[in-house]
């Protein structure tokens, strides 16, 4: 289907390819806006905001650039960021200062006998790294780039697939992937105790070629390598959950009777989550359902900013954030090898029925009602994306950021980028369009909303027209911004970033 615009015939596919080349969102959310003051209507394109390159490369690129800015601003700080304690955290932040809420029942808190003790040192109330001085009087404040990996689950080939799939431990790999973030949180808690200060970090969870999760992290401050290795060896995670070694229901499933899940044949009520945990706590011979640790491979590198090494580390840290876990090592526009597809399928099959949390529907398969159970739960159909083939167990955050990393939320970093652009334009005498110019908060004289937004289902003609209009507007902003930078140079690091999409 074609769209006749001002000039030659432009198809929707042509407009899409042009938008890709100009880094304009190719999957905009189109909304119809009625201006009640002028009684006119227009179709407005809102960026989709996807973080996946396979979905929308321009939006994914902008998301990665924003993460790079967030990482850079917090890594080598010389002053303490403003701390604003709140129980309402950003989607990309974890309250790692609080212990995990696995289970509050009485249980021995003694460390496992097969785990070394953690070093204990006096604690300092700081988050920035120490300053070191050289013999000639120069001062520097180093930080670190850290990589943590998981252990082996069996020999793998150069392609990252098991050399002997029949003896490869897919179950343990799947469980470790499902609970990897919990182990990482425990590591940071332990490292703070051993380092003697409030270690701050920006971490990215990525899969290795064998599709096993590992962590890359920018760490503020320098910590002795021996200390880090000791903390890695001493860090473990125990899941004190009911046993899920053998499924109770395979060819049939429990049913909801209006109050609880019951056996469809006998009518017996399945134990609730609390009842199952009470039984576990009362059993003196009980063992954790799963224990996980990091592997022996630990990479540590010191870095000083500003430097090319620090910039390169930031780019590497955010390299795979725009890719789905299953597609991380697949080249664009290429089909994965059959052996790799088979490896992904086998791992996905294992993940489908393993419980991902206390509320996972898969607990019904093992004869236990999930925590806060309700109607509509079916084993193998848990809504958590951790079970999806695209995520392969990593259904939570791919970016883990400590709360005092930069002193800002991600939305505030995004606002900073817009402010830099607007100030540059204003210094050159150019007034940028107001971002709220079509907002519902804009009212008429009687106080009623001036703009009324409604959903619309655009055809190919409208899609192409709106996409080309967005490209033209981006060109206009880019030309104005480049002229403004030439007339009044601004901060080099921020000014070179692309301006935000208008409106």
UniProtKB/TrEMBL annotation:
Pfam families: RepSA (PF20199). It comes from the Bacteria. Residues 77-128, 484-503 are annotated as: Disordered. Coiled coil: none annotated. Residues 91-100 have a biased composition (Acidic residues). Residues 77-90, 101-128 have a biased composition (Basic and acidic residues). This is Replication initiation protein. It comes from Friedmanniella luteola. The lineage of its organism: Bacteria, Bacillati, Actinomycetota, Actinomycetes, Propionibacteriales.
């Amino acid at each position: 289907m074609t769209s006749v615009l001002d000039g030659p015939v432009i198809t929707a596919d042509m407009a899409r390819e042009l938008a890709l080349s100009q880094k304009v969102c190719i999957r905009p959310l189109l909304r119809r806006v009625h201006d009640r003051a002028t009684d006119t209507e227009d179709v407005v394109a809102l960026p989709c905001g996807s973080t996946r390159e396979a979905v929308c490369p321009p939006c994914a690129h902008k998301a990665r650039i924003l993460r790079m800015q967030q990482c850079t601003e917090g890594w080598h700080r010389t002053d303490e960021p403003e701390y604003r304690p709140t129980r309402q955290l950003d989607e990309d932040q974890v309250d790692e200062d609080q212990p995990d809420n696995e289970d509050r029942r009485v249980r021995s808190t003694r460390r496992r006998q097969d785990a070394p003790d953690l070093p204990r040192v006096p604690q300092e109330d700081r988050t920035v790294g120490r300053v070191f001085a050289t013999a000639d009087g120069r001062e520097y404040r180093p930080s670190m780039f850290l990589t943590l990996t998981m252990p082996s689950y069996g020999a793998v080939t150069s392609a990252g697939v098991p050399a002997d799939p029949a003896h490869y431990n897919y179950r343990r790999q799947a469980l470790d992937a499902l609970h990897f973030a919990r182990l990482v949180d425990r590591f940071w808690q332990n490292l703070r105790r051993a380092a003697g200060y409030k270690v701050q970090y920006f971490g990215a969870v990525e899969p290795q070629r064998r599709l096993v999760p590992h962590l890359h992290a920018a760490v503020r401050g320098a910590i002795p390598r021996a200390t880090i290795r000791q903390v890695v060896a001493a860090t473990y995670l125990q899941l004190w959950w009911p046993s899920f070694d053998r499924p109770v229901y395979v060819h049939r499933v429990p049913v909801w009777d209006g109050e609880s899940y019951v056996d469809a044949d006998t009518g017996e009520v399945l134990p609730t989550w609390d009842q199952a945990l009470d039984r576990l706590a009362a059993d003196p011979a009980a063992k954790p359902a799963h224990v996980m640790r990091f592997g022996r491979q630990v990479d540590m590198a010191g870095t000083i900013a500003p430097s090319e090494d620090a910039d390169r580390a930031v780019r590497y840290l955010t390299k795979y954030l725009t890719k789905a876990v299953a597609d991380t090592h697949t080249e664009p526009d290429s089909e994965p090898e059959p052996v790799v597809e088979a490896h992904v399928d086998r791992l996905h099959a294992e993940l489908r029925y393993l419980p991902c949390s206390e509320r996972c529907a898969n607990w019904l398969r093992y004869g236990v009602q999930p925590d806060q159970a309700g109607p509509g739960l079916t084993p193998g159909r848990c809504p958590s994306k951790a079970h999806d083939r695209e995520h392969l167990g990593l259904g939570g955050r791919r970016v883990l950021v400590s709360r005092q990393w930069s002193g800002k939320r991600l939305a505030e970093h995004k606002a900073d980028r817009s402010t830099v652009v607007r100030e540059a334009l204003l210094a050159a005498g150019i007034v940028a369009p107001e971002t709220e110019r079509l907002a519902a908060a804009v009212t008429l004289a009687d106080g009623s909303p001036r703009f009324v937004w409604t959903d619309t289902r655009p055809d190919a003609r409208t899609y192409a027209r709106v996409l080309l209009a967005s490209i033209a507007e981006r060109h206009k902003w880019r030309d104005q911004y480049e002229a403004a930078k030439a007339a009044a140079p601004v901060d080099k690091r921020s000014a070179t970033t692309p301006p935000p999409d208008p409106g």
